[in-house]
Specification:
The chain is built from twelve helices and 14 strands. It is α/β, with parallel strands linked by helices.
Length: 386
């Protein structure tokens, strides 16, 4: 099926006179411009106005075109972007039909080495992105910026508050690990927190995140897919969500995380979800999402192409003996960016896990090993192979 069959033009007004703004050089499928070619393209924007499984967030389907208006009105950075805008997905007869169509679109873009940027809609659309990888039998790491885990009950119908459980129990399963940044303990059932630990998933409380935002960079660098729930940002900065809380990330912190995501060579798809214009104030939230997207694009064009670590000459190798545990841990430090990785002992199925044995880490992990302690990140990663 031709991709255009799934899609319809965006309704935003395109100002052809907008010099040096992001809209310049973006091929947009609009009422006045034909469906764009996908040659020489790095990223593709897809609006998905699906809301039927949104939890307490009706009308979030109005988000994609409004986000576009604020993103395209920003000035270009010190990069030459190659972006197409494929317009908006035609919603299926059921949400599952929408998931199937979106999974097909995302999958074809991945096959063409084009990074999909999804503007939702509700966060259950993350399932479609996961399915695109699963259909290709590709194991992935999923990273969510969210104030909750969205586990729910896998026996119940899919909602934006239960999509993760559907992914976890799917068979065959291609989720290697899930990481959450920004969860707030008073919003999460304690049993869910324990489940995260039992599954060896990574979860970073808002308070921990706020102490030093840079600590989340290795986790973001390890992700293949990112799912952003705008409710992770505090209500004062992003009021356009009925589930927003008075506490949360500041807009600047969320934007920094987006830059980390863009810079990661592993990151292959990202989605922004749960924005509801009917709750917004003067377009404040849409403007912030536009800035977050801009920071992601800027990060993308600052990639240093260190992954998949084929050129070990660009890395300095350190071997640390943790005598108390009779372990040797191999670390690598980039000579270009000063970023760190550590090796996880090999697994029998090398082909299946080859994308996971070099784990992004921080200098703090190296310091922990030098203190004769096994880094927490290393222990959790090793447990995933069991």
């Amino acid at each position: 099926m031709d991709l255009q069959t799934y899609l319809e033009p965006t309704l935003i007004a395109i100002d052809d006179q907008s010099q040096m703004l992001m809209i310049q050089d973006v091929r947009v499928y609009s009422e006045t411009d034909k469906f764009p070619e996908l040659d020489d393209v790095d990223m593709a924007i897809i609006g998905v106005p699906e809301f039927r499984n949104a939890w307490n967030n009706a009308k979030c389907e109005q988000a994609p075109d409004i986000i576009r208006e604020y993103f395209y009105a920003l000035h270009q950075g010190e990069f030459k972007h190659k972006i197409v805008d494929l317009g908006n997905l035609k919603i299926g007869q059921t949400p599952k039909d929408t998931y199937a169509a979106l999974a097909d679109i995302v999958g074809r873009l991945l096959d063409a080495n084009i990074l999909p940027i999804i503007l939702g809609g509700s966060q259950d659309l993350t399932i479609a992105t996961y399915n695109a990888f699963a259909h290709r039998k590709q194991i992935i790491n999923l990273f969510a910026l969210d104030n909750r885990f969205d586990l729910g009950d896998p026996e119940h119908e899919i909602t934006s508050r239960s999509y993760l459980s559907k992914i976890i129990v799917s068979q065959p399963n291609y989720l290697f690990t899930y990481s959450n940044a920004g969860f707030q303990t008073y919003l999460v059932d304690k049993h869910a927190i324990q489940l995260m630990k039992n599954l060896n998933f990574d979860a970073y409380r808002l308070g921990v995140l706020r102490q030093d935002i840079h600590n989340i960079e290795p986790v973001v660098r390890n992700a293949d897919v990112m799912s952003v729930d705008i409710s992770a940002i505090r209500k004062n900065d992003a009021p356009g969500n009925p589930n927003a809380f008075v506490t949360g990330l500041f807009g600047e912190e969320a934007s920094q995380i987006m830059r980390y995501a863009g810079m990661s060579e592993k990151m292959r798809a990202i989605g922004f979800y749960e924005y509801n214009p009917s709750f917004d104030i003067d377009g404040q939230t849409a403007q912030l999402i536009g800035i977050m997207l801009w920071c992601f694009v800027e990060g993308f064009y600052q990639r240093k192409h260190e992954y998949p670590y084929k050129d070990k000459e660009k890395l300095t190798k350190f071997i640390v003996s943790v005598d108390e545990h009779d372990q040797e841990i191999v670390f690598y430090k980039s000579k270009t960016t000063d970023r760190w990785w550590m090796e996880i002992p090999g697994h029998e199925d090398k082909a299946k896990f080859q994308a996971h044995y070099m784990l992004p880490c921080s200098y703090a992990d190296y310091e922990q090993a030098m203190r004769n302690e096994l880094p927490d990140r290393w222990v959790a990663a090793l447990a995933r192979f069991v």
